[in-house]
Amino acid sequence: MIELTNLYMFIAVSFLLCLAPGPDNIYVLTQGMTKSKKAAIITTLGLCSGIVIHTAAAAFGISMIFKTSEIAFNIVKFAGAAYLIYIAYQAFKYRNAPLDLSVQNSSSELKKLYIKGFFMNVLNPKVSIFFLAFLPQFVTPTNGNVPMQMITLGVVFMVLTVIVFSFIGVAGNMLSSKLLEKPSIVKYMNILTSFVLGSLVIKLALSNR
């Protein structure tokens, strides 16, 4: 059982972490601006689905592998970097494509966005280590069932992330009318997306355990 004071503190800190500008929420923002509200929300759900994996890994000690094994950490790190390079390349390649919300809201396109978000999150070992270091700070071992406490905290973090990121994506979409008036803005947003992802690749590739 999680102590209420710990839970309240965890919610406050998690909310601030979700709001802090970073590659994930900026990516969701650009999805909302250049695609649609639905695209931003689906991307958010994809990213947050990865949190389930990281929470389970932290709760049951799997992510200790990343903390203790440099080889395992590097394998996942460079796999994630390679995937982000691919997404960045796609965004840059189609930077001049016109804004077409009917296409962006198709089931196949939304499925691709979900998968992209999921792998962006899962293939980042730093996230796994973050959860391994972050969640235990709000766990009370004397209250028993530590894995369940960590899983509960992970679920809370995931719900908060879905709410905050979805809000960011929807807010970005409110600016999409400007994009329809000035199609050239889409080009620069796609370039921004590729730049953000490229920056994340560099940061991920240079990260240490």
In short:
With 209 residues, the protein is mainly α.
What would you say this structure looks like, in words?
By secondary structure, the protein is mainly α. The chain has one domain (25-205). 79% of the residues lie in helices and 0% in strands. It contains eleven helices and no strands. Helix 1 runs parallel beside helix 9 (146-173) and helix 3 packs antiparallel against helix 9. The two termini are 31 Å apart.
| Structural class by helix and strand composition | mainly alpha
Count of runs of 4 or more consecutive helical residues:
11
Largest sheet: none
Q: Termini distance?
A: 31 Å
The helix content, as a percent range, equals over 70%
Helix-strand topology string: HHHHHHHHHHH
Number of strands: 0
Poorly predicted sequence stretches spanning 5 or more consecutive residues? none
Q: What is the total number of structural domains?
A: 1
Measured by DSSP, the beta-strand proportion falls in under 5%
What is the chains' assembly state?
single chain
Radius of gyration: 18 Å
Shape field:
globular
Mean pLDDT: 77
